[in-house]
Amino acid sequence: xxxxxxxKAIVAALAxxxxxxxxxxxxxxxxxxxxMLAESVHSVADSGNQALLLVGGKRAQRKxxxxxxxxxxxxxxxxxxxxxxxxxxxxxxxxxxxxxxxIKNPHELEHWYWPVGVLVFAIIxxxxxxxxxxxxxxxxxxxxxxxxxVRHAKAPELPVVLLEDLGALVGLVLALGGxxxxxxxxxxxxDGIGTLCIGVLLVLIALILAVETKSLLLGEAAxxxxxxxxxxxxxxxxxxxxxxxxxxxxxGPEELLxxxxxxxxxxxxAAEVAAAIDAxxxxxxxxxxxxxxxxxEPDIYSEEESxxxxxxxxxxxxxxxxxx
Length: 324
What we know:
By secondary structure, the chain is mainly alpha-helical. It has helices spanning 7-31, 34-59, 75-104, 113-141, 146-152, 157-185, 189-218, 224-234, 270-287, 303-308, and strands at residues 240-252, 255-264, 291-299. It is 65% helix and 10% strand.
């Protein structure tokens, strides 16, 4: 996995969650707190998710084959989508069930200092993990807001770790609040309410991850800035006079496919056109290094054809032809 995949952030989160999961489970055994059990399962799910991200990054590095000529870069998106499923089912739904059971059948907390101590330790550990994820993300985020970064990042690992760590910190605060209120009021129903809140939080985060990774799985185009750079690099003002139309597609976070129909002069020879295409490909790769697969089709530009607009039938996803 490349540096932009956030391997350091994933490993930091995996180490923190594995240690926290053990501590939470021990605290649950001593106290019987449903919040602690929900948080234990949450940390186990998070640990498994980080392992999935590492596996996805490793498998995405496989070389292209005749059956998969564009490589395996998008496998990282598949594993990120699996993370959302695990977080929803193992984390969120279990917490909702456990919270419901605790409210329905409350029982007094025992050895309260165990869950409180573990939760404080977990908040500190998760804060360090979250800090690492923020630091790694800032190197790629640039001037974008956090919302824009999560929504438009092509590498899924850092947004996943960021949302997981944020959810973990908020969940720990909710668990601490539930345990604290149960101790202050003597009513363990508060522990169950805290557990329900954790479940709702995890389900919401899982749904956000599912929506974002689904978009990546379907295939996203290059960003606006990259598109402008590619269009500027294609045109040399001599042989290549304009871009008639262009399609881009991310084959993976660090691999971009570019397909374009370019306008050349009607009196250029085949050798001149071929040389111009080779030069345009070199300029594209220099301007946007992740543009690895490039197909340029020369054509003669026509004002009349351009005025008609793009052919919807020739566009992927366009209307189906009607048989008569």
